Predict the 3D structure of the following.
Amino acid sequence: MTFKKIVLGSALVTGALLSSVMVQAQETIRFATEGAFAPFNYMDNTGKPVGFDVDIAHALCNDLKAKCVIVTQDWDGLIPGLKVHKYDAIIASMSITPEREKVVAFTNKYYSGGVRFMGLVGKNFDLKNLSGKTIGAQRATVAAQYLEDHYGKTANIKLYDNQDNVYLDLESGRLDIVLSDELPTYNWLKTSGKGGKFEFKGKAFLKTDQIGIAVRKGDTKLKDQLNKAIKDIRENGTYQKINAKYFPFSIY
Amino acid sequence: MIDLHGFGDQLLQGALITVELAMASLAVGLVLGLLGAAAKLSSIAPLRWLATIYTTIVRGIPELLTVLIIYFGATIVLMAIASQFGYDDYIEVGPFAAGVTALGLTFGAYATEVFRGALQSIPKGQHEAATALGMGAFRKFQRIILPQVWRVALPGLGNLFLVLLKDTALVSIVGLDDIMRKANIAVSSTKQPFLFYATAAVMYLLLTIISMVVVTWLEKRASRGMRRG
Amino acid sequence: MDFSVVVEYFPRLLEGAWVSVQLVALSVVLGALVALPIALARISQNWWIKGFPYAYIFFFRGTPLLVQIFLVYYGASQFDVVRESILWPILREPYWCAIIAFTLNTSAYTAEIFRGAIQAIPEGEVEACKVVGMTKAQMYRRVLLPRAFGIVLPAYGNEIILMLKGSALASTITILDLTGMARTIIARTYTPIEIFLAAGGIYLVISMVIIAIFRQVEKRQNRYLGTVSIKVPDKG
């Protein structure tokens, strides 16, 4: 291999790369999800995203006769990625909040949320006053914002890139207590074998929390289509089937 | 045998992506490095300034931040340019393209210095001799300068490649399915962080060893015509 | 593009920058202390003395810093033995985990720099020491190490800048360093480009300050010498 060939080859690869920054026409709906929020969206051991959110996305595409592409994106990059057109919609158990509505538009809800504390079995907390305690949550979530707003001055708040790392640090004992969405935590307590060790603390709150699909502001066509499709799958029973796969009660 | 809980295949696929990313970034970086060195040695002052700004900025900003800025920024910049030409659909810059751009830029900035040193190491007499033999600028570059630059630059470039190989792990943060991200996914599902991060470490070590062997071989080849001692 | 968010959040970015500076300062000081014995063992003639430092350096330079951080932070805490040990109060803090990972990492690179410097000292000086009857310890303390310090400076300055850049990875284990702070701000404002560019600018300023400081120290340290340069590999 001569140096000349290498330079030539390098130039070719560079050119190929530039042309691979491809331009696509919008005949498919490209959804982004996080892939670290079981059972709503997580990766199976073949590296594919699966879960409630993913099933709903496929059902919606099916209803709209559109092709579905589902990509994964780390949580705190989801909205920035949507804004820069990396995909068309976010279906990642994202709560509809006024802050987010400033930058993206939401469809109607596709399920309802709520957050709840969780900690070691038998350890009691005064949830009104957690001063000096180390509390964990996922960065850029409703739970994180609630912690920053209500406990930011008194408690030690640790924010994580994803929910799985919050669980890891709760188990290791780095965290005293965590605040997160109730449903995935319910699932974690049921399925991870940790149910005997950890439990919910206090009641769920922010129950008015609604989970929607985010689209770019101004993309009203897609928003209307998705709203119609959500209504359709609620009416034809597809939604209920998917719901029953994951929870024995309705989460709508 | 170590039980990887069925994630072994995934990790191997991740290794393939890591290698692809490293090779593509290397290609882009070599081109940028040569251009950068040429610009730094150029007699045109603005070119020299441009090259200095490039190497100073890229070498002073964390690679992680470069990856993040390119990942989120490239699409906006490209779309702004495209809209100047009346094109207003979106342009996709995926994690792979963003990773190659960011790591290529980083490699190029360090390679600029390596190439510059190598270019300067060629005695002036050789330029004169080549000119005296009637070679044009291009032929002189191709026959006399490049083969020698390659030999002198190889050890430095080899080191930079090892750095590049490890920096590929950063692209996992923007969602490229490389070794690191596959390890993260496996940790999520199995709750065995030590096992999978240690496995990832071993895989990077193996890639490092392979790279070192290849670089040594290239160095030997490149100095075939050299006298010993 | 809306750069008013940068103005609004600039004080918080500076808070993060201060954490980054602390992390880097502590890690490079501890790293240098760890590196010295490793470098000395590495130049030993006995293979069983240089075997360990060789493996140590090879591991920390051959794997990504990100993997090392995750191994220390999430990997170690997986084991009950670690969680029940007296080290747990330290290992449970992300701040100290970052310091540990950075220290181990930078010490491997620094050891190679030290080794290069010690080996770059002209043979004649070693011989001169022996002639005047110095013991090995005296020779190291009085001649080799002070000389090596002068030779080491440029490469060591580089290493600190590389550590500064590497410190951005602290953000992956909940630390609010400059990058972590930037990511937390973006979680509220959704303006990644503006905030990341601002953070990049701050990193650039910090590295320029480090370069300036080292130029000054180099001038003082090597003022009575011609230049001696050594080749040291870069790191990632």
Notes: Residues 1 and 49 of chain B are 56 Å apart (CA to CA). The domain at 8-222 of chain B is CATH 1.10.3720.10 (MetI-like fold).
